[in-house]
Each structure stands twice: as structure tokens, then as C-alpha cells.
Amino acid sequence: MTIAAILKHKGHAVVTVAPTATVPEVSARLTDNRIGAVLVMDRADQVLGIVSERDIVRSVAQNGARTLEMTAGQLMTRAVHLAHPDMTVDEAMRKMTMGRIRHLPVVRGGEVVGMVSIGDVVKSVIMRQETEVDSLRAYISGAA
């Protein structure tokens, strides 16, 4: 299974913010969309970084209330790990595990076409395993 298959089921919507968005604005976007990260994009739709719930919590621990005065551009993680639609779910899981990240923007030809979370990847693996178990049960019982 590929990342494209996850996006086909999940959808291609990506929540973004400008680098000038304040942390309260970013937090509202995360809450309103029930997501864990937003992409920080420039006016030319280029990825500048990503802001996750972890980034906000880490900043609060380090900077306290000053975090609320910061912008997405100040808080974002600049080294964004990317996926491509043809990447396998196993490759994505490995990338996420090794990089200790929870979100992968999906890019095709320089354009962001979606975002997958570790939850999306795990759900895909579980669905694949359930299908394999069902197939094995059917084979063993002679139904195949």
C-alpha cells in the first residue's frame, strides 16, 4: 500500500498558516480542525516549515507565556520531512519512526498534495493485517 492510497481514502486537504500567524491563531487552527500539525507556507505555496502541538508545548516549557506572542515563523520546525505519493506505507512508517515525527507532508512535483499522520499510517497497517488474517482464515477453512 502507498501513501497515495491513504490520501485517496483520507482526502487531500492540508491546513496551512502564514509565517506571520500567531501561536494563538495556530492553536485555533489545530483545535478547529482536530489535527496535530499545520504547514507554514509562503505566498508562493512553498513549504517553509511545520508547527505541531509538540512545538507549542516545547516552547511553553522553554519560554513560558512569551510563546503566545510568537509567530508560526519563529516557532516552526524548518527541516520538514516529506513523503511522495508512491512511497510505501512501510517506508513512511520507517521515516516517521527514525525521525521521531508524527506528520509527513506529501509532495508531488514540488506541490503539496496532502499530509499523513502516524495515526493514518498505523490505521493502514492494521487494515492490511486484518485483510491478511481474513484471507488466511478463509484459506484454512477451505473457502478460498
Adjacency order of strands in the biggest sheet: 1-2-3
Q: Which percent bin holds the helix content?
A: 40-55%
Distance from N terminus to C terminus (CA atoms, Å) equals 22 Å
Q: Can you tell me the number of structural domains?
A: 1
User: What is the CATH first-level class name?
Assistant: Alpha Beta
Task: Just name the CATH architecture.
Answer: Roll
Q: Using the alpha-carbon principal axes, give the shape.
A: elongated
Beta-strand content bin: 15-25%
How much is the radius of gyration in Å? 18 Å
- Overall mean pLDDT stands at 92
Topology order in helix (H) and strand (E) letters? HEHEEHHHEEH
Low-confidence stretches: none
Q: How many DSSP H or I helices?
A: 6
Count of β-strands:
5
